[in-house]
Structures are given as C-alpha cells and as structure tokens.
Amino acid sequence: MLELMDLTKTFKHTEAVKNVNMFIEKGEIVGLLGPNGAGKSTAISMLSSLVEPTSGDVRFRNKSMIKNPQSLREVLGLVPQEIALYEDLTALENLKFFGRIYGLKGQQLQNKIEEVLDQIGLYERRKEVVKTFSGGMKRRLNIGVAMLHNPEIMIMDEPTVGIDPQSRNYILETVKRLNEEKQMTVIYTSHYMEEVEFLCDRIYIMDKGNLIASGTKDEIKQILSSENSISIKADRWNDEFIKRLQDIPTIQRMKVEEKEITIVVPKDLNMFAAVAKIADESKLELRSIDIKAPTLEDVFLHLTGRALRD
Amino acid sequence: MAGILFAKIRSFIRNPWTFLLFTAMSIGFAILIGSSGNFNTIQVPVTGSEAVQESPIGDALKENKVYNFVWKSEEDMLEQVETGKAEAGVMVQEEDYQVVIGVDSANSQLVEQTIKEIYMDVLQQEKLYAAMKATTATEKQAIQDKLDTAKENPVFSIQQASFRSDDAFIYDTASHSLFGFTLFFVIYTIAYTVLPILLEKKEGIWDRMILSPLKKWEMYVANLLYSFVIGYIQVLVIFFIFRYWVGVDFNGRFIETLLVLIPYVFSIVSLSIFITALVKNTQQFNTVLPILAVSMAMIGGAYWPIEIVENEILLFLAKFNPLTFGMEVLNGVAVYDYSFDELLLPISILFFMGVLLMGIGIHLMERRHI
Ligand SMILES: Nc1ncnc2c1ncn2[C@@H]1O[C@H](COP(=O)(O)OP(=O)(O)O)[C@@H](O)[C@H]1O
Ligand SMILES: [Mg+2]
Questions:
Q1: For domain A226-293, which architecture applies?
Q2: Which A residues, 23 through 82, put their C-beta within 8 Å of a C-beta on chain B?
Q3: Extents of the domains making up chain A
Q4: Taking residues B333-345, what's their average pLDDT?
Q5: Under CATH, to which class is B41-136 assigned?
Q6: Which of A75, A284, B68, B135 lies 20 to 30 Å from B306 when distance is taken between CA atoms?
Q7: Which residue numbers delimit the ABC transmembrane type-2 domain (chain B) (predicted)?
Q8: What is the rounded distance in angstroms from the CA atom of residue A294 to the CA atom of residue A277?
Q9: Residues with Cβ within 6 A of ligand 1?
Q10: Average of pLDDT values for A196-221?
C-alpha cells in the first residue's frame, strides 16, 4: 500500500537517511526502531510528504507522492515527535481547532471530539489549559488530535518519550485498540524495543541513516539463531572479573551494566563453568548465570556492536 | 484561516503579558522622557551688545520657536554654562557668533545648529536687501513678500524625501519621545508574536496544518495578520491614551496619525518574519532582536532627532531603516503638517520595505528544514 523506494535525505552536512526501502501493508502495525539520530524522524517526514527526499520515491497505492501527495495526506494522521499543540488553549479548544482545519464542524465535530476524548482518557480534563497538563496527558492529546479526521494510516513518532509508565501503557493499549477495532494502519517509531516488541507485527531497524534489519519479530530474532546471550548478574563488579571476561576469545560481544553483564557466545559453547571459575578466582560473588531469550536489543547489539540507548 | 486567527487571539487573551509590558513601557518612557525636557521651555543664555539685540539677528533670536533665548551679561552666561544650569550659551555679534558648550549633548548640538541657521538666513536676507537697494521698511517688506510667494510656488518643484533638507525644524520633545518609544517598543511586541511561528514549525503544529486541507498562504496570512493586528492595537492604545488622557492634539490630525502608522506596523511585521527565518533558534532570536531594535531606534531617530545626526554612515544606514520613515511620517503629520503628497514617498518606502522583507522572509522560512 505504502512504499519507500531507495529513499535518501542529505542535509547540509549529514546524510540522515541512506537508501532506505520499506513497505507498509494495510492494517499492519509496523515498527521503526533505532537509537536517537538514526534517521527515523527524517524517514517518516519524507514518508508523510513533509520533507522532500534528496532522491528516491514514496509510492502510495502505486502512485508517486513526491510531486502530488494530496491523496496520501488525506488519509494520514501524524503524531509529531514534539508536543504539537497550542499550550495556552484547553484540550477541547485544541481538538476543535484541529478538527475544523479538516473541515469538521457542528454536531459531527462535537461527536468526534467526545469520542476522541474518551479514547485518550481526557474527558474530565477537557476544559483545562494544555500548559497545566502532565507529560503523559500532553502526549495523549497529541495523539488524540491526530485521530479526529479518522485517518487510515497513523504515523507516530516516538509518542511515549519522557512519560510515566502508566501513561505509556495507556498509549500502547490505545494504539493496539485503534489497530484492532478500526483496522488502522500504524507506523510507530521508537527507541524503546519493548514498545516495538509489544505492538508491532513487523519491524525495521535503523542505525546512522541505514536500514540494518527488517522482518517480523521472529525473523529478526533468527539473526541470532547461531548465538546465545548469557546474562551474568551480581551486585557489583570488579575490574579483574571484567578484564578476564574480555580476554576470553570466544566471547563475541559484551555489554556491561550496573548489575548485569550480557555476553554473546556461539550457541554450542558451554560458558557456565568458565564464568563461574573466573568469578571465583577474582573473588566476585555472582547472583546468577542464565541463558537469555534473544531480544531486539540483542539483535541491535549484534548488528552494531552498541546498545540501543547509548 | 479564521480558525488560526481565533486560536491565536484566544491564546493571546490568556497570555497578554508581553503585549501589556511593552505597551506600558512605551507609555511610561514617553511620559517620563517627554516631560523631563521640553525644548520649548529651555532657556539659552545669550550675550551681545545693545546694537546686536536690536538688529535682525536679535529679532530672529526672539522669534525662534525652538528655544527661549534670554539676554544675559557675559559673566552670567558663562557661569550658567560652567555650573551646568544651561547646556550651552551663545555670544553673538552682528556677523559672527560663538556657541559655548557645557555638556556635549543632543541639546547643545541643536542650539549650535539653530544659531547657525538663524545667521545664514539673516545674512542672506541682508545681502538680498542690499542688492535690491531696499532701505525703508516698506521696501523690505515688499521684497520679503515676493520672496515668500516665490518659496511657496517654486519654479522647480522638488519632492522632499526627508526633513533633513527642511530648514525650519521643530523639535518637540513630548511628541518626539511619544513617537520614538512607541515605534521602538512595538518592534518587540510584533517580533514576539512572529517568533512562535518558528516554535510551531519545530514542534510540528505546522506539519499538522500542512497535512490538513489548509493552504500554505492561509497559514502565513493568518499568522502575519495576527501579528499586524496585535502591533497595531498596541500603537492605537498608546496614541488614544495620549490623545484623550494626556491631551496631545497631534496637530489636529489624529486620524491621519493613526493611519500613517499602518505602513510602519506592516514593515515591522515583515522585518520580524525576516529575522525569524534567519535565526537558528529562540536564543539567537532573543540576542539579535534587542541589538537590532536598539540600533534601529538610534539610527532612525527614535531617541534623539535624526536632524542632529551628521555622520554620513549613520545617515546612509538610516535610509534602510523602517523606523526612520516611521518617525518621518508621524512627525510629518503631527508636527510639520505635511500634505499627502509629501507623505507619499515615506509611506511608499515603508510598503516597499514591507513587501520586500516579507517576500524574502517567507522564502527563507520555506527553505529551512524545521
Ligand atoms: N533539519 C535538519 N537539518 C540538519 N540535520 C538534520 C535535520 N534533521 C535531522 N538532521 C540530522 O539527521 C540525523 C537523523 O535525525 P532524525 O531523523 O531526527 O533521527 P531520529 O528521529 O532517529 O532521532 C541526525 O544526525 C540529525 O542531526
Ligand atoms: Mg526522531
């Protein structure tokens, strides 16, 4: 239905998006995962006809949208990465304003606004000025405003950044419900792999302007089929332990966190004994050693050698 | 389009503080500075012999509207200047003069210039009488009348682009500071209604509108119309207060005074969109704006009359400054009693600047990626 073909965007000094190909089918929730600066926002700005690509094409129902994006714009709902609302107006006034610019009016507008307020759980607070809202409430309204004209395709750019876990869950549930009840197609960008893992049928992973992986969740995890992630936990680390782990040649990658070290090793290798021995010799008390089911985070680590949120 | 305007106005009503602040500042400064030193009441001590006092020079000094020249003994005059009671004093002879300057201020420069002009006028006239061999008062009067008619109906009519060529320059501090501070502070009010465009673009409000059936031109017209209205309301409020509360009568041409503010406000809206398109972010805007506004005010003669500026570079720069022409049309209507023809040029220049800056500003705004 919607396709990005060899899409490239070069700003003065940065190649923000390099030769990206994607497709989105009707009714899907597609995730676009990548760390900050990966080029996600630029990619979806091109997709929604807001930024002209340096080269490549955006095709919607087999027609190019570069010169004539009207048919795409009509069915698009956009949730920008920032809070794109009038902060001095109330929730209701914002909804009215954005509804009217889509030509809604009268009873129809009224009904739609009430429906949206219910969906985003802000009915009680509708007469309050947005400035006084919490981060989560602003984010919810930011989404609500994009729903007024019943878009077929919803593009959401990191819609949960910087909010509390309840609000985040609420938003994730709302997105899922919209998809299930209204068959809304959703393109969801995030740098939180849990969100993408929870929501999305298919996933694209971007890094430094490049698409580095794509497929269903399982397909992507298959990338790691020849490897195991092993999680080592302790209350604290000491230098000797880390140093000696690093010296083991069969450990392909290693990520050190405060209370957990993740190492990636070939699947058929048994590392338990070796790790336990090193811990013992460097006088470190371990809490546990486990084999982890691979996560998207691990895939990202595998592909780039870096953690997603670095 | 009306929707954007309403949304903006509603936001404004909830948050009118910038507007109120700058309106109050204009009024406050205009009253404070305007009443602190009205030149009409300023006395300038003059020394000279009895003969000079009775001469045409003496008459011209007496008739001068800008200053109150008071005859003093030389010692008294010097003492007044030395002790700072007077900013300047003058010693006059029949064909020559000396200005004693105590404080090198706008005022003392103006005194010097006034005296210079008086001498040039009087001496010129004397030479004329001599050439025409006029000796009696009636003969002189006849020549004077002819001269006046000739001046009013010149063989070559030259449009005046600016006051600077005008010899009789009247400086009225009260209205000058009112005009100056109004034109100065409204730059801030307007600029701060244009700046949100940058934020709205960055946050994505504009993206939302672009995706909607709204047209681009509607977005610009609504936003800029709003800025214009807010700016114009501010100057209206200030001028109405001065007209009906303070009692300034604007030369009996109050409505025209209000009308000639329109091209100025328009040019400042355009200037604001131009700056907004150029700056990288709000901080830069906040840095650039005061620098620009203050230099415009200084160069354009909002703080002191531009007539006393002699530096060629400043005078050249003044020609590119909307504020110069804003002061000119206001003074033109309310002080110099210009005809419409004489106002047409500065008004056209303001409109031209407005269209140009807006064209470039919107173009740059559209080209930038945010
Ligand atoms: N308007 C712009 N001008 C210049 N560089 C930009 C612009 N927008 C984005 N970039 C650069 O392009 C890269 C990708 O940015 P972005 O698409 O915002 O990434 P993401 O959304 O994944 O965090 C970054 O390096 C960013 O600095
Ligand atoms: Mg982004």
A1: 2-Layer Sandwich (3.30)
A2: 45, 48-51, 73, 76, 78, 80-82
A3: 2-221, 226-293
A4: 89
A5: alpha beta
A6: B68
A7: 136-368
A8: 25
A9: A 11, 14, 16, 34, 36-42; B 369-370
A10: 90
pTM exceeds 0.80 for this model: no
Closest CA to B255 of B316, B195, B334: B334
Q: What is the mean pLDDT of residues B31-35?
A: 77
Strand partners, A228: A265
Listed by number, the residues of chain A in 91-130 with a beta carbon closer than 8 Å to a beta carbon of chain B are 93, 97-98, 100-103, 129
Q: Are A98 and B14 a contacting pair at CB < 8 A?
A: no
pLDDT grade, residue B166 (50/70/90)?
very low
Give the span between the Cα atoms of B330 and B300, in whole angstroms.
13
CATH architecture label of A2-221: 3-Layer(aba) Sandwich (3.40)
What pLDDT band is residue B40 in, cutting at 50, 70 and 90?
very low
Phi-psi map region of B127: left, alpha, beta (phi>0 left; psi -120 to 50 alpha): alpha
Nearest CA to A157 among A32, A28, A11? A32
| Beta-ladder partners of A288 | A233
Q: What is the pLDDT of residues B114-124, one digit of tens each?
A: 888 888 888 88
ipTM exceeding the 0.90 mark: no
Residue A21 corresponds to which tokens in the numbers above? 């190909």
- B15 contacts in A (CB within 8 Å)? 88
Q: Which residues of B touch A (CB under 8 A)?
A: 3-4, 6-7, 10-11, 14-15, 200, 202-205, 207-214, 369
